[in-house]
Amino acid sequence: MSIFCSFLVLKQEGCLCAQHCLNALLQGPYFTAVDLATLGQQMDEQERERMAENGVDSEEYQNFIRQPSGNMDDSGYFSVQVIASALNVWNLELVPYNSTEPRALTAQNAPQEMQAYICNYHDHWFTIRRLGRQWFNLNSMLTGPQLISDTYLSVYLAQLQHEGYSIFVVFGTFPDCQAHGMLLIQPAVQVSQPQRVKIEKSQGYRLGSSSDDPDLERALSLSMGQGSYNEPNRSGSKSDEEEDNDLQRALQESVRESKITEPLPSGPKNSSVTQDQHSGGDEDEDLQRALQLSLQQENNSSDNDLKKALQMSMECLDSDSTAGTSNTNLAEIRARRLRYLEKTNSKSTS
C-alpha cells in the first residue's frame, strides 16, 4: 500500500477551505463548519460588546451593526481570527511569516526547521506541513499531497509571497498522527505530481444547504456570466424555439408555392403584378427573379405567337390577291400591319 494512503487529504467543497486547512494541518477531522461558525459568532458578539461600551446610540455602534460579519459569511469563509481561535484549542499559535518577531526571523532564515505553515490568498486557505522528515503541500485544491524538498521549500514560500499570499508559521505541539509515524520509518517517494481539482457545482456553496433546484441552477449559471443555461431535454422532443423556426419555414414555403402556382393574368397587367411583388419587400429576392423570368418568357411567347399569326395572315393575303383584291387595299393593309409589327418589336426589345 502506498505511503500516501495514510494522509488525510480533503477534497475541496464550496468555500470550506478554512475547515479543510485546519483538519489537514492536524491530520484528523477535528473541526466542522458548524464549529468554526460558532467561533465566528462568538467573536462577532465580543466585538459588538466592545463597540457598545461607548453607547448603543452612538454613530460608530450603529454603523458597526449594519456591517456584515468580518469573521465569517454564509459561503463558508472564515477569517484568520477564527482560524487562530480554533488553533488555540490545541495550544497552537499563528505568527506572521514576514513579521519581525524572533520566531518569525528564525523561520525566514531556516524555513525547513519549522513544523507547518498556513497560507491564505483572498478566500482560500491551505496547509504546508512537515510529516516525518519531509514537507508536503496539503492544498485541498490538489488531488493529493505534493512532496516538497527542503531546498524547494524556501523558494516555494518566496513564490507564494510574490503572488500575494499571507503566510503564517504554526508553533506548538501537534496531535499525534499515523502519517507522521509511518513517514519516519519509510519516507515517501512521489511518482507523479497531483493535479488541481475542479469544484463540482452540485456540491453546496452555503453552510447547511444544497442546490438541487433546476431554476436556481439556471439563475446561478446566468449570474456567473456563463451565457445561456442549457436545460436537459428529458422528453427528447424539440425545444419551443426550434418548433417555432420550423413553423416559420413551413409557412414561408407554403406562401412561395402558392404564389408560383397561381395563374398570372396576361397582357399589360403582368408588369403591375411584378411591381406589387417588388414593393412588398418581405419576399425572397430569388423568388422575385424567378417570377420576373417567368413573366418575360410568357410575354415573349405571346409576342412570338402574334408575330407568327400576322405573318401568316399577310401570306394568306398575298395569295388572295390573285382572286381580285385591290392592290391599293392590300398595300394599305400590309403597311398597317408592318407598322404594328415594328411597334411590337420595339416593345419586346425594350
TrEMBL record:
GO terms for molecular function: cysteine-type deubiquitinase activity. Residues 4-185 form the Josephin domain. It is found in: Nucleus. It catalyses: Thiol-dependent hydrolysis of ester, thioester, amide, peptide and isopeptide bonds formed by the C-terminal Gly of ubiquitin (a 76-residue protein attached to proteins as an intracellular targeting signal). Residues 223-236, 268-278 have a biased composition (Polar residues). InterPro entries: Ataxin-3, Josephin, UIM_dom. The active site is at 17 (nucleophile), 17, 124, 124 (proton acceptor), 139. One of its GO terms (cellular component) is nucleus. Gene3D superfamilies: 3.90.70.40, S15/NS1, RNA-binding. PROSITE patterns: JOSEPHIN (PS50957), UIM (PS50330). Its main location: nucleus. Coiled coil: none annotated. Its EC number is 3.4.19.12. Residues 223-285 are annotated as: Disordered. Keywords: Hydrolase, Nucleus, Protease, Thiol protease, Transcription, Transcription regulation, Ubl conjugation pathway. GO terms for biological process: protein deubiquitination; proteolysis. This is ubiquitinyl hydrolase 1. The lineage of its organism: Eukaryota, Metazoa, Ecdysozoa, Arthropoda, Hexapoda. The gene is LOC113210777.
